[in-house]
Amino acid sequence: MNTICQRLNLDYPIIQGGMANIADHRLAAAVANAGGLGVIGSGSWDAETVRNEIRLCRQMTNKPFAVNIVLLNPHAKDIAQVVVEEHVFAVTTGAGNPGQYLPMWKEAGIIVIPVIASTAQAKRLEKAGADMVIAEGTEAGGHIGELTTMCLVPQVVDAVEIPVIAAGGIADARGVRAAFALGAQGVQCGTLFLTSEECPIHSNYKQMIIEAKDIDTIVTGRHAGSPVRVLKNQMARTYVRLSEQGVDRETLEKMTLGSLRKAVIDGDLEHGSFMAGQSAGLIHEIRPVQEIIASLFASIPLDDPRLHAR
Ligand code: TUI
Questions:
Q1: If both were cysteines, with which of 90, 216, 268, 274 could 212 make a disulfide (CB 3.0 to 4.6 Å apart)?
Q2: Could you tell me the distance, in angstroms and rounded to a whole number, from the CA of residue 95 to the centre of ligand 1?
Q3: What's the CA gap between 301 and 140, in Å, rounded?
Q4: What confidence tens digit (pLDDT) does each residue in 206-225 have?
Q5: b (16+ CB within 10 A) / e for 101-124
Q6: Per residue in 220-279, pLDDT tens?
Q7: Fold held by 4-200+283-297
Q8: Ligand 1, atom 22, residue with closest C-alpha
């Protein structure tokens, strides 16, 4: 059986992206019930909100699920404690180094899966006790690194012994096969799940992704050292201008999270920040999570050891 499926008790080697302020217990439970690793994306929430989401998720599924922690969140330290108290099965992390929390999570028996954007980060976290890493290319939505999935994944596979999961740009079976050919043991998809029936975002957000073409995403915040990929709109252009004028990183991050709410809740096409990856151009319909996952793996012989080059 595929290593990821074995270690994470899954039917399919797929992890749902921990999409900030989007992936609540409803999406996480739907992915878990469909045989993937569902993830509660704690984004900019506080610790008690996360605790409540974990409990709500347990009411919707008996399957294991994870919590994603954005390390830029000022509440990250408290959330790191809550996942221990609530005996969460696994944690994924993003936008920073989770090294300081690893001893505490390992002690609690939590499976730790950091998202990394370079081989140096992967090696450091393997040494610190991470169980696997998600190597995320710059094709992804939201906060991103520099390297492409095509270049990052095989280099991370060569740099570490722990299983590697590929992310960034994967939204159909071709992407899954490519990830396996690069040596990954599984995939993480975010943008694809944004267009699931169960994803609790405004219908305008889903529609924007369905209509997006290959060139319809843009990276904001590069100047401020906090690159974030979003769908092109008025807000994105304003952000890029402010960033070029040298507005500080903290202000820009606050602005992004505030406008993310405008996208997610209000569906505000002009002022919202619609985080999405380059794979938006590959997605053409809204489908139930179960159908999305089954179609990704329908043509792939998961039990064939030759599938994963290493
Ligand atoms: O984390 C993500 N994607 C995100 S987090 C997020 S919430 C947010 N909103 C506005 C501004 C900032 C965050 C939206 N999307 N993906 C995982 C990811 N992590 N991609 C790249 C990284 C990364 C980058 C640098 C991980 C580690 C790192 O440095 C670690 C170190 O060694 O310091």
A1: 216
A2: 2
A3: 26
A4: 999 999 999 999 999 887 78
A5: bbeebeeeebbbbbbbbbbebbee
A6: 988 778 899 999 999 899 888 888 888 887 887 777 778 999 999 999 999 999 999 999
A7: TIM Barrel (3.20.20)
A8: 95
Helix axes 173-181, 149-159, angle to 10 degrees: 40
For residue range 152-173, list pLDDT tens digits in order. 999 999 999 999 999 999 999 9
70 CA from centroid of ligand 1 (Å)? 7
pTM of the model: 0.96
Distance 303 CA to ligand 1 centre (A): 33
Q: What is the CA radius of gyration of the chain?
A: 18
Q: Where in the chain is the domain with CATH 3.20.20.70?
A: 4-200+283-297
pLDDT at 224: 75
What does the block give as tokens for 111? 């499976």
Residues lining ligand 1, Cβ inside 6 A: 20, 43, 70, 72, 94-97, 115-117, 121, 136, 142-145, 226, 228, 253, 256-257, 275
171 Cα distance to chain centroid: 13
